[in-house]
Amino acid sequence: MPVLNVAFVGSEDLAKSLAKSNDVRDIESYVYKEQRNGETCVISLLRPLRHPERIRPLLSVLNVAEMGIVEISKVDASIGEILVSFGSAGIERGLAIINPKEGDWVDSQQVKMILSQAGLDNWNLYESIPDLHDLREEIYSHLDTSDSFHSSASLVLPIDQHFNVKGVGLVAIGYVQSGSINKHDDVVILPANEEGVVRSLQVMDDDVDTAIEGDRVGVALRNLREEALHRGCMITHTESKALIRHEKSIIKIDKSPFQKRDLSVEDVIHAAVDLQFVVGRITGVDAESYSVEWETPLWIRNEGSPRILITQLDASPMRIIGRVESISIS
Q: Is the model's pTM score more than 0.85?
């Protein structure tokens, strides 16, 4: 069941017109299923809540999305930060839809300029909401051209929820970021370094034997203490070398467009990658490199790491400092 995860920043009305509400946390999920070429294909819209007050839900959505949709009702600092964050995250496929409130007007040329400056030149710009059927077809076209799943990749599964279910036991929920997970697999939970066994899997409310990259999966686990699980912990296979633990790092940052702030010693930053949101403190600056001590371990993939976004919560109006160009253990 192919799934296309779409980072959706826009109104609840537009989201509901495209897909059915499925889940609400600090991120709303909307799902649309359609039979195409003999199989069920799924569009999963992920809508972060409470932006600009909170930036973490937006970054979490960008960690798992393959394309983006941004509905623009006005051009302000908030929309600038949103588009820059998509560009910094490398979301190169997407749609910008101009939809001002009644009586207002948005300059499409200004939006085009911001998209270009944010690194989103390949995005399609609509000057009004298109026909919903045509819009879904365009979204599905990105599913048809998305990168194929690589079964040889190592499992990386960050967890954002966990709970006990009567008759099932301990269940952890998250997005498969890399590789696949199967029933009866032996897995390890990091950083607790405790092992468990996969009792069962559920994707889109269906019991499955395997969950692959892009799936939001519920993993029922046995032989594991609940205390080993927390938001941001990682599941990988036992004996896997998929993740490298960083407690101190040296990073080089490719600064985002419109970002004028320079980082200094003692500055507090946050790193967002694979659904982690880890606090760090800068302990040294050497030319374009920064030494950082992390408050809790930052887990970086050994191979094929996605972009790591660096933010500062007190930076205004642009909290996206940039993306990590290189990282090594200090």
A: yes
